[in-house]
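S1.2 Input.
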Amino acid sequence: MKAQQNALLTQVGPQSACGQLLRLYWQPIALVDEFDPRLDPKMQDRPVKSVRVFGEDLVLFKNQAGQFGLLDKHCAHRGVDLSFARYEGNGLRCPFHGWKFDVSGTCLDTPAEPTGSRLKEHVTQRHYPVIEKAGVIFAWMGPANQTPPDFPKFDCFEAPTSHSFAFKGRWNANWLQAFEVGIDPAHPSFLHRFLNDEDLQNIGDNDAGKQFRSASAGEIGGQKWPMTKIMREFCQPSISFESKPYGMEITSLRRMNESLTHVRVTQSIFPATFVIPLSESLTITQFHVPVDDEHTYWYSFFTSFDKPLNKEAMREQRLQFISLPDYIPKSGAHNRWGFNAKEQVEQTYLGMGEEDINVHDQWAVESMGAIQDRTQEHLGTSDVLIMANRRVLLKAIEDSQNGAPAPGVSSSSIANMRFGPDTVDGVAPTEQWSDWWRAQVQRKQEACKWLDPSSATS
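S1.3 Output.
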C-alpha cells in the first residue's frame, strides 16, 4: 500500500475524506451504563459527559426526562467549553453568560440580553441526532443538511434487553487496524490459541474469555470439540467471501478429514462492524468507532438466541480488566499487556492470559503502532479478506467524494432489511457444508422465542 493511501484510510478528522464517509453511519458514542450512578457516582447529580469522536470534542448529557443530547463542546455564544456547563435538568447552562441549551440544541435562555430580546430564537447550538439501542447511545454526525438513514435492524438491536448485553473498551490505535484484526479469519488459530483444553462442562454462558472455548456445533467421533481445539489443530483455513448489500459474508473452511470440515461463517458490516459466533446460541456484534486518528473504542453487543443473559455477572467479570469511567484497559504497553513468558510456554500461544481474550486483540492492534505503516507489509493468501476490505473502503471514499451514495446501511433501504446477519461455527459434512450451515442458522432461528424467522433472510 502506498503511503498516501494509508493516510487516506486512517485520517478521520472533520476535513478528511474517510472521516466524512464514516460520519454517514450511525456510530456508538457511549454506553447507557456510563450514566448509571452505581458505576459512576458523579452521574447522580450531573449526568454530563465529555465525548471525543472523529477527533471532535462533544458534550453528551441526559435530561430529567431521560432524553440524551449530544452538543458541540464550544458554546454558540463565545466558544467556551460546555462540558463545564451547569446541569439544570432540562438543559445545560453556560457559566460564561448563562445561555442555556436543551437536548436538541435549542437556545432556551440568554439572560444577559435586554428584556424582550429575541436573540435566542435565532441561535442553535450545533447538535447531532442520537438514538438509544441495546444499551448503547448512537449518534449520526453527517452533514446538518442531510437526513440520517434509518437505524439498522440487526439481530443485536432487535433482541429484548433480557437477551442483550453491551460493553466497550478503548485501544490506543487507529480504527482501521482494530477492525482489520477483528475480521481476519486466520488469526484465532494463533493469537487466541490455548495450549490445553478445558472441560466444556466448566464453561458458563456468562464467562468472559472462556466463552471462546465453547463447543462448536456438530460432533467429531461422537464428541463436542471446543473452538480453540479446532483452531489450534487446523490452522490453515480456506478463506472466501461473498459481497452483500451490507458488506461481506466471510467463510473459513478448515478441512479436518475427508468427511468433516470445520465451517466458520462471520459477517463484515461496512464500514467497521463484524459479527462472529461465540457459541451455538450467542453472537458478538462489534463496532469500532474512532476517537481520533490514534485511538479507538470498540463496542461489543452480546446477543443470546437462547436463554436470558446474566448481565450483572457479565459486566462484573469484564470490569476486572477495565478502568472506569472511561473504559480504559488495565493492560497495555505500560505493563507489556501482562505478558508472561512461562505462560507462553505452558498455557497460551501469546502468553497474555486466558480470562480476557480482548487483551490478545489489544496487543495485536496496539503493538503495530498508533497508525500501522502498511507500506511495510508483506501480505499473503490468508490476507485475502484484508485486501478486499481495503479495496471496498478506498472505492467508497472515492465514490462519496464524487457525490455517490455511501454503501451499506447508510441507505435506509438496506438498514431496514432483516438479515441477521447470521453466523455459525461448527463441524459439517465436507460435501454438504453449505447446506449444513444454513440449516444450523434456521434451527437457531426457529428455536429463538424472540425472533420471528419469517422476518429474516440469510
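S1.4 Remarks. The chain has two domains: 30-139, 155-455.
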